[in-house]
Structures are given as C-alpha cells and as structure tokens.
Amino acid sequence: MLKYLVYCRKSTDDKEKQVLSIEAQVEEIKQFASREKLNIVDWVIESKTAKAPGRPKFNQVLDRVEKGELEGIISWHPDRLARNSVDGGRIIYLLDTGNLKDLKFPTFWFDSTPQGKFMLNIAFGQSKYYVDNLSVNVARGMRQKIRRGDWPGKAPYGYLNNRQNKSIEVEPKTSKIVKTAFQLFSTGHHSFTAISKFMAGEGITRGNGKPLSINQITSMFKKKFYIGTLEYKGSLYDGNHHCFISKRLFNQAQAVLKTRSRSHDYAHRFAFTGLIKCGQCGASITSESHQKYYKGTDRVAQYVYYRCTKKITPCDQPYVSEDYLTKQFNQTVKKYSIHPDWKPTIDSWLAQKQAKESLEIKAKLKTLTKKLQDTQTKLTRLLDLFLDSGLDDKTYRLKQNQLFENKKKIEDKVQKIRNNGSHWLEPFNEFTNCAILAHKIAHKKSDRDQLRQVAENIGSNFKLKDKKFFINPKTAYFMLAAGGGATTFDPCPNAISDFVTPRGIEPRFSG
pTM higher than 0.85 for the full model? Predict the structure, then answer.
C-alpha cells in the first residue's frame, strides 16, 4: 500500500475566497481518504502563498519524496501544490523519475500516465495564469484608484483607513500630534530623536511599542501626501484627501531637513550653539558651562560662555558670556523690528493696494487658467503616446513628473491669487507680522530659543568678533533699519511709504 502525505495550504497574501479554508480542506480530505482507503502517514499544513518558489514545508515534502520516505501526495486541488512554474515542474519531474508514484485530489482526476501528467500540467498552468492575471488586475485597479486621487495603501500618521467606504480620513487626535511634530521640527531646535520621543509620549509608536525610528520620522516629514500630492511608483498625482499640514509649514520642514543628517542628529544643549561663526577665522562658535561656588552665600552659580572652537587656524578671539550675547541678540532683533502700533496703518495700506489690484488679478487668473489647461492637455497627450508605446517608461516618467510639477506650481499661483490677491501681498503681510512679533520679543524677557528663532527669520551668516555680534539681514529687514530704525517707534502720518515703496520692500515681495 502506497504511503501518502496530505498537504494543505492556505495563502496569506490574498483572500482566495473560492478556496476552502484549511479546516475545511482537512475535513474533506479525511472523508476522501476514507472512501478511497488511502494510507496516510503524515499531514503537513502551511500558510504560505504559492505564487513564487520557496515554501519551506512544501520543499521538505518534496525532499522526503526524493528520499523515498513518501510515495504519494494528497491535496485538495493542484493549485494547493503549485502556482508557479518551478514548483509545478519539480512535481512533474518527480512523477517522470518515479520517485512520486501518485497524486490524489478530491476535486481533480489524476492518473500517472502521459495523459494524466498532461492534464496536471494544464491545471498548474491555469493556476499560474490566475495568479498572473490577478496581479495585472490588481495593478490596474491600483493605478485607476491613484488617478482618482485615492491612496491605495496604508494611511500615513495622522490619517486612518476607512474600510467601509475605502477612503482615507483625518484622524482628529493623531493629526494634531503630527502637526505639532511638524511645527516643532520646523523651528530647527528639535532633533529627530526628540520628535520621536514626543510622538511616542503622545501614543504614536511602532508596532512593538517602541518610538519611531529616525528613518520613519524623516520619511514622515518628506511625505508629500500631507500637502495633497500622491507619490506612486515614481509618478506624482493629485490627492483628494483633506490636508491638515499647510504648504508653508511643510516647506519649512523641508528646509530644516536639508540642513540635517543622521550623523548630526542631536538637540542643541545651548540656545545659540551651531548658529554663529567666528568673525576672525570662520570656525564654529561653541558653548561651555562653568560652575562657581560662592562661600559667603553657600551657593553654586552656573555660567555659560561662547567661544571659537579654533579648529581651522589659531585664533585669539575672547570668550563671551551668554548673558552678554543674549543682550546683543535683543538689540539686533529690536533694530530690525516694527512697533506694534504700526499694525493698523499697515493693514489700511494693504487694503488700498488690494482694491487697486483687483482688475490686474482677474487678468492674471485668466492667463494662469489658460496655462493650466494647456499643461493638462500636454499630460493627456503624453499619456496617450505612452499607452500607444510611443515612449519608453523612463522618458514618460521624467516628462510626466516635469509637467505635473509645473501644473502644481501654476495651481499654487492660482490658489494664492484667489486667497490673497497677489503673490507679494501675502509674504509682505507675513514679513510685517514677523517684524512686529520681533519687536514684542525684544521688549520682554523672552527665552533664548525665541530670540534664536526670530534672528533666523531676520537674516543669516551670524558672526561673532571682538565680543560683538553681527548678522546679515534679509533685504526686507535691512530696509527697516536703513532709515535709522524709524519703524521701531510709534508710527507717524504717511510714514509707511518711507519703508515700503521707495526703499524697495514692495519689489522685494513681488511675484
């Protein structure tokens, strides 16, 4: 009597609704073996897809057949044994050599004859065709879904997959945590590790409960999904999901990412560390802390000093106390600020400019709409050419991404004009608000992190020489100080024109 092994398999990566579960397969095979009076010596159950070779238990079964331990195999259907040409070919070869003497299936007739093996080959081929065709259909469905603006995969942090309507929705709690993470990171004062710990403290972790890795945090900050763009297999598409991260905040995070690397992922121990260069030798300014014990009062005081690292050339620049450096930061911020009482005057001036430019806005929108339609037409023609095999995949992806990026830029311009009236009015308003905020911070006892952030908004190329702090202000802030810092005091009639049009502020912000 032949020695049979029962092999039952259930795929783990597709639903296979038409295939019985393993429990049902076992029960059906028991009844089948009893009717046929088959000698079962072992059972093997495996949960593994058969789309590709490499099933451990299946390979062990065939190894036992080759060694002569088994003579026959019982399975529910040939597709339980093989859905790829390698595994199917190996079974046919074992039948040819006589190592495998028989196969039994409750749902398929087989006899170890040329005709039987021919029919078995057809069954294996049909199984492979099903898998191949399924992959094509799934890929086509995924592409169609992405074209509609629906993300076909797992929702990013801050979103959730709605399985009922198969959409992605904003998750109220985690979206606030993700937005706060973007805001913290965009200040430039928080490391990847600090952001990971913050999110873990709020409940966003890996599956094992550990904080997100640096790669996961970096990937989150780079994901264009948060600003409405879907990235799928090298191509970009418009998403139709709601965005809770503004493009401005996203771009700020990208700017910080450019200055960061994993090897430099650390939190600043002192507020001004990593910001200033030595004005004499160009080396970085570092900080160090010293403690001093006062016997008379029995207390220990801590003092922070900043000094040149002297890693480039010999340098004789002196130490600077943190208090003295903070005082200079305050003076610099005040110099490039606007008195809060200017706010009504500025708002009135902006309102007049918006009214005057309303006609120009209509003309701009008409032009941009035409450009948008032309770009969309080009995208459609490019896709038709690609589908007609007139373009190779690499060239199509390159051209498609270029046109898509151009389309997004035009859409951004249209959106800005519709929301704000003009490209320069929004950044100008933002600039004046920042300058007013700088005035408030410079006139109160603020923490040094706030001073650093405001100073980075005002300019760059920070230098320290002979205990004096220097900054290279942005053009707009330079204009504020060009008239002796008049805007740091209360406004006077018609004075806004002194620092807006003649001094070049307006052209600085024009589109």
Answer: no
